[in-house]
Amino acid sequence: MAKTGRPKSDNVKKKVLSIRVEDSMYRRICDYAGKHKMTVTEVVLQGLEKILNRPE
After folding, report:
1. Which of 5, 13, 47, 54 has the most Cβ atoms closer than 10 angstroms to its Cβ?
2. For the whole prediction, is pTM greater than 0.90?
3. Helix H segments across 1-56?
4. Would you say 40 and 29 are in contact if contact means Cβ atoms under 8 Å apart?
5. Would residue 2 count as lying in a domain?
6. Residue 37, domain member (yes or no)
7. Counted domains in the chain
8. What single-letter DSSP state applies at residue 49?
9. Which top-rank group of organisms is this from (predicted)?
10. What confidence tens digit (pLDDT) does each residue in 8-45 have?
11. pLDDT higher than threshold 70 for residue 54
12. How far apart are alpha carbons 13 and 5 in whole angstroms?
């Protein structure tokens, strides 16, 4: 019998972050995500990567 459910990931994400943003910022993130065929999570993670990879 085949296994059901989501396949196991090599990069398990165990931590959850929760932030509050203004309605206007949320709309901007959602608009960007829609235009670039991304999820809101992908947009936020890419933004964090960009900031954290900057030389200090």
Report:
1. 47
2. no
3. 23-35, 40-52
4. yes
5. no
6. yes
7. 1
8. H
9. Bacteria
10. 888 888 899 999 999 999 999 999 999 999 999 999 99
11. yes
12. 17
